[in-house]
From TrEMBL:
Pfam family, one: BPD_transp_2
Coiled coil: none
Bilayer-crossing regions: 6-30, 37-56, 62-82, 94-116, 136-160, 188-211, 223-251, 258-278
Protein name: Branched-chain amino acid ABC transporter permease
Species: Bordetella genomosp. 4
PANTHER family recorded: AMINO ACID ABC TRANSPORTER PERMEASE PROTEIN, BRANCHED-CHAIN AMINO ACID TRANSPORT SYSTEM PERMEASE PROTEIN LIVH
GO terms under biological process: amino acid transport
Length: 288
């Protein structure tokens, strides 16, 4: 049952799922940590990232890395219009943002239904080749997806820790009023954080659609994953989002492989309920 080929497959699936889940959760926790916005439209932006990849890669045949990054950039740029019209009115209004962005999510999802209908679509595989490592076959498409996610996560880490704008984002997350008094343009920082959050969400949506299937309702799963991951790691904690994504990705890969998807979902939600009871601020979050 626990043979080396199966365990290696579980490990690779866990790594690829973890990288996608971290991207999803970082987009969610970035908006909450800096602007105190609970983005219920998170899944809709992931869905739009999937459709952007579908057209750029599946229809127009752009190289996969260009299509997946370009699609996420396109969604993030278009989302700046919604940042101007909707999101900025709910910064630092946590409970109001929940209701407003839930409505925005429904509007985007059913607009997608009107445009693309409800049928699922499949994106063409990145590659069908397998990598043979000492007799263990590893799917190259999962490795490519994981590699793209890891590169983007590494660039995000470098940006946050080694650039002026990244440090300004961290300062605004701690206290936006004090950051403004120190000369930081919080309006620009909010817009930049929003752009980065939606970019990572749309990128994760494209990778998720590549792995599973694409439909207007596919965003429900990334939204649920984002909630689970940020609850595990702690709302507003970037390191917590990374830890939560790794834990959920590997747990889901292992449990769904050996015990089925229902057991995996039961354990995931059971852990979240227990954590909310005994440590509601998450593993790496701080109580407020």
């Amino acid at each position: 049952m626990f043979s080396l080929p199966i365990l290696s497959q579980v490990f690779i699936n866990g790594l690829s799922l973890s990288s996608i889940y971290i991207l999803v959760a970082l987009g969610f926790t970035l908006l909450f940590g800096i602007m105190r916005v609970v983005n219920f439209a998170h899944g809709a932006f992931a869905m739009l990232g999937g459709y952007a990849l579908y057209y750029l890669y599946g229809m127009y045949g752009l190289p996969y890395p260009v299509a997946v990054v370009g699609g996420a950039l396109l969604v993030a740029l278009l989302a700046l219009v919604l940042e101007r019209l909707v999101f900025r009115w709910f910064y630092h209004k946590m409970f109001q943002s929940m209701i407003a962005l839930l409505g925005l999510n429904m509007a985007l999802v059913y607009a997608a239904v009107l445009i693309w209908d409800v049928n699922e679509r499949s994106l063409p595989a990145v590659t069908d080749t397998m990598l043979d490592v000492h007799g263990v076959l590893l799917p190259m498409d999962r490795l490519i997806i994981m590699g793209i996610a890891v590169v983007v996560l590494g660039l995000f880490w470098f940006f946050v820790t080694h650039t002026r704008q990244g440090l300004a984002m961290r300062a605004a997350a701690l206290d936006s009023d004090i950051a403004a008094t120190q000369g930081i343009n919080t309006r620009f920082i909010y817009m930049l954080a929003f752009f980065i959050a939606i970019f990572m969400t749309a990128l994760a949506g494209g990778l998720y659609a590549q792995t599973y299937a694409l439909s207007p309702f596919m965003g429900d799963r990334p939204l649920m994953v984002a909630f689970i991951v940020v609850i595990l790691g702690g709302m507003g904690s970037v390191s917590g989002a990374a830890l939560g994504g790794v834990l959920l990705g590997f747990a889901e890969s292992f449990l769904s492989t050996f015990y089925g998807a229902s057991v995996s979902s039961f354990v995931s939600f059971g852990v979240v309920v227990a954590l909310l009871i005994f440590r509601p601020w998450g593993l790496l979050g701080k109580p407020e």
